[in-house]
Predict the 3D structure of the following.
Amino acid sequence: MESLPVPSVQAMVAATGRADVPSRYLRPEAAADAVAIAGEDQIPIIDYQRLLLDHGEESARLHRVCQDWGFFQVRCLTSPSFAIHTSLCYLLYLDDVVEGMKANIQQFFQFPAEVKKQFTQERGQLEGYGQLFVVSEDQKHDWADMLYLYTQPPEDRNLRFWPDQPANFKSTLDKYSASVKDIADTLLATMAQNLGLEPEVIADTCVGGIQWMNYYPPCAQADKVVGFSPHSDSDLLTLVLQVNHVQGLQIKRNGSWFPVKPLEGAFVVNVGGIFEIFTNGRYRSIEHRAIVDPKEERLSVAAFHSPHIDAMIGPLKEIAAHEDEGYKTVDHEGFMKLFFSAKLEGKSFLGRMKLKSS
């Protein structure tokens, strides 16, 4: 699995003063897409504290949200009254870890190009600094740079691609990836129970973690480029952290692009393709994209949580025992090759996983 090398958009913008947009980035059709009016609505919010306290009402709300939206925000802010509960004390620690992660990502992308190039992707590798899903020389490119790292389990890490600047980048990323995995495991266990499964059925398969750090430079023709092409995620569950104040994430809902407004102290969470397949379509992954700002940069980090590479990806027997299976069963490695072998086009890769009878 690999992606063809492309120039750094950040370096290109710095060299041209934002004025020039090469044709391979221009997508004028993007401006014609229907976008819901900002302020009309907001994606649902789940209170993580209430989930940890085994609050049945919050668990039921999570179930409805996964069925109706596939996207939600999980708020992890801790109030002093809650923090005295031993199971919630670590949320105070999480606040510090999150702020440290934000600072390190911002510092990394502000380093000179020569520093970032030390961690450039190598031939046949997805990991490192560069871009993904570039499979041909003539396809349109996203207006973004990224740093893509395997973080969980620790033995899968390739520290060759982990920046040594800022000085505490590695230790901060280690703490951050472990913390977001804890949140993902809790959500997966609750989601499994909501589907009538034992809590560990899905959570125990979730061993793989990837951190995908995105930098979206400003663009003078922001309405004619796309920061991240429309797609749905391939994993079990994704947690996205907004690093700075600039918004840009949009989800496809009722035929329009719906802007997401990240809350302070919250992660934006979405159901991935593997979860959709595991549940035989009960919870569905949702198409989404990222747009860019004409004046300011945007930064985010997405934490992807997946089964082990040797796992089989198909409807769970506990769910599909008394119904027709809607999806093929393949090994995880083959599934990921399918995902990364083509440019991003909505949910097209999941379409190739569906059985014709479904």
